[in-house]
Amino acid sequence: MHGILLHSKNKGLDVPYKSGVRYDYNVAWGTATKKNRRRKWLMRGGLCLVALFALSTLPIKFPFQKKADETNSVVVAIPGVRSTTTHIPNSEHRLPFEPAVPQSNVDELATEPVEKIPPLKTEDIWRTLTVSPGDNLSLIFSREGLSKRDLHTVLQLGGAAKNLTRIKPGQIIRVRADDNGHIIELVQEVDYLTSLHIESSDNSYVAELVEIEPVIRTRTAVATIENSLYLAGQTARLSDRTIMALTEIFGWDVDFVLDIRRGDRFSLIFEEIYKDNEKIREGRILAADFVNQNRQLRAVYYEHDDGHHGYYTDQGKAMRRAFLRTPVNFSRISSKFNLKRKHPVLNKIRAHKGVDYAAPHGTPIRATANGKIQFVGTKGGYGKTVIMQHGDKYSTLYAHLSRFGSGVKRGKRVEQGQTIGFVGKTGLATGPHLHYEFRVNGVHRNPLTVDLPQALPIERKYLDDFKRKSAPLIAELEALETKHADPRYLASTEENKADTAN
Fold this sequence. Notes:
Blueprint: E1 5-7, E2 14-16, H1 25-28, H2 34-57, H3 68-71, E3 73-78, E4 81-87, H4 106-109, E5 126-130, H5 137-144, H6 148-155, E6 172-177, E7 183-189, E8 194-201, E9 204-211, E10 215-224, H7 229-235, H8 240-250, E11 265-275, E12 278-292, E13 295-303, E14 309-312, E15 332-335, E16 355-358, E17 364-366, E18 371-378, E19 384-390, E20 394-404, E21 413-414, E22 419-423, E23 433-440, E24 443-445, H9 460-485, H10 487-501
Antiparallel strand pairs: 1-2, 3-4, 5-6, 6-7, 7-8, 8-9, 10-11, 11-12, 12-13, 13-14, 15-16, 16-23, 17-22, 18-19, 18-21, 19-20, 20-22, 20-23, 23-24
């Protein structure tokens, strides 16, 4: 090119572009000098040298390099010093200095190749399922992608497998299945000590109940009542179940609504049940003392050879009566037996031929004795009512129920302590309570003061065996009572209460 003219911005000169001569932009604009051009080339050369030096330090591998060079590296671990990697060159590419680790020791430092562990198969993995409220087996199997055909097959086994139809919220079910969701093994925890095991066998399933033998230990407890029996039991670290059992043992002699006084005390020996060294629950009471208004009561558990069992005094008399003193637990009396009481709804004098027990709506009501259901239904101002006949002489009435117990029907026999209904306020009632009547030969008697018939004592042929077995329990109870009466023990108990409160 002969003639492209570039205009100079500063001086307005036309500078010709000559073929073969290289001009940068500064030259084109007429501002560059030879000195400036020399400085720029020096800077560019310096940058190139720096780049070459940096590239020479990088571990670049060339295609012609042997693969053996890639393996000659050893990790050297020195105590207290961060691990470093030493490269051992081959003889063909030996460095001018000796390596830190001799070549002869490389084989010794090399580790054996780790054998790969095969991955777990699906059928080797257990799934742990917890039953939620509203769950059934069909929902659980659908949610977990398990075979419903297997579920149907398992339920058809009957027998022990019927426990799967009675699952409850909180129960644990463990399942092992294959990739297609077919059940290989299933374990259901029926209770703390019993499990249902179902296992596939020859294109079918086998179900069995497995019971674990628990470890039973005995423990003692003593307490003085300050406010209520329940709070005293909690102070003694007793479960609600054991406190209720204590009231049932002495419930024929003590009205736990009216008779309890501050300063009453109790001592007891009871069982604790352990599974795998873990406490599951408290068992039965073996022996107990209860001091109520300076009157001492004692009960000892005894089981006959024929399996019959119960609680007896130290003389062999039955603690149990034919009737319970109260049909509900831990309630208060809102109205006593009074033939001249003014009715709260009708507002006129009307005999109150029973006792009213105020209790929360839905509180269970228990039959006070064995008997037969004579009436179930609605009865005027009584509302929902149950009447029971106990032999030819005695009958009881339970009124103002919110609903009846499961299976309570006319003509059905009911055992003492069985739930026959629940507290409500049906009929002429101002609030939830139970109206309870006790009749002897059709005549109303005060349930709180009537003499209850006594159950049969231990048979004479078992009396010697009873005394032999009960002697160590009675001796331990007396030792507990002596300890309980010691002022030093009472002082330590008060200190424990203060520590617990803090």
